[in-house]
Amino acid sequence: MTPTQPAHATSLPCSILLLAGGRGLRMGGRDKGLVPWQGRPLIAHVHDVVRPLSDDLIISCNRNAEQYRPYADQLVADAQQDFPGPLAGVLAGLARARHPWLLVLACDAPRIDNALLHALLDARADDGQTVMVQQDGQWQPMFSLLPTARLGDLRQAWDQGERSLLRALRVHGLTPLHCATDDPRLSNFNSPELLSETPPGSPS
Questions:
Q1: Pairwise CA distance, residues 39 & 130, whole Å
Q2: Which CATH number does 14-197 carry?
Q3: Mind spelling out the 3-state secondary structure of the chain?
Q4: Which of these, 117, 123, 102, lies nearest to 14 by C-alpha position?
Q5: pLDDT confidence of residue 79
Q6: How far is the C-alpha of 86 from the C-alpha of 46, rounded, in Å?
Q7: What does pLDDT average to in each consecutive run of 10 residues of the chain (204 residues)?
Q8: 20: alpha, beta or left, given left = phi > 0 and alpha = psi -120 to 50?
Q9: Fewer beta carbons under 10 A from the terminal one: N or C of the chain?
Q10: Separation in Å, CA 17 to CA 50, 124, 201
Q11: How far lies 46's CA from each of 79, 84, 169, 175, in Å?
Q12: Residue 12: its pLDDT value, please?
């Protein structure tokens, strides 16, 4: 089994949240993070990349907690039981994060690499704005870096009826990390068709 703790302590003041709490509707209701790709669950591929970067790896999951537990330091679940979306998962992660910044990633993006993650971390500024990948003018909230101090603002937005993570974050300003539209590292394998189209020898 993959060890839970990194081989060495990291100096990056960053918690990491992997979002795996959705319904998986495009996967026919299957838990996306546990769907196999290249012989291993999608969550295992993402875990391998992010594990060395933090001593606080959080997974947001609303089912199959025992299967996710080996890949995380902490597990969180939505406060609501009806799969209300990624904002709920981010709120749960922010409330438990141990560091001043929270790196938010999807469980179904197994092609992320260290260069992308370090670029997000390096884009932090003193103004405390959220850093988010932008492709051809489109924001990608599943690849973002949030100050944990944003928790109160996001809770207030939630209490006022907001359910969009992007809209809740944009109110406070976003710092873009520009990536090419066809950047393969940002591919979300969120349907059986996309998984089957990926050549078996493709890098993860």
A1: 35
A2: 3.90.550.10
A3: CCCCCCCCCCCCCEEEEEECCCCCHHHCCCCHHHCEECCEEHHHHHHHHHHHHCCCEEEECCCCHHHHHHHCCEEECCCCCCCCCHHHHHHHHHHHCCCCEEEEEECCCCCCCHHHHHHHHHCCCCCCCEEEEEECCEEEEEEEEEEHHHHHHHHHHHHCCCCCHHHHHHCCCEEEEEECCCCHHHCCCCCHHHHHHCCCCCCC
A4: 102
A5: 83
A6: 17
A7: 40 85 55 92 96 96 94 92 85 97 96 96 90 97 96 97 96 96 88 46 41
A8: alpha
A9: N
A10: 10, 17, 28
A11: 25, 23, 24, 24
A12: 54
Question: What distance in Å separates the CA atoms of residue 160 and residue 144, rounded to the nearest whole number?
Answer: 23
Instruction: Please report where in the chains the tokens 């939630």 appear, as a residue.
Output: 158
Unique residue bearing structure tokens 């068709």: 193
So what's the pLDDT on residue 74?
Answer: 97
Residue 5 has which token pair? Answer: 């703790």
Place of tokens 């969550």: 43
Q: How far apart are the first and last CA of the chain?
A: 19
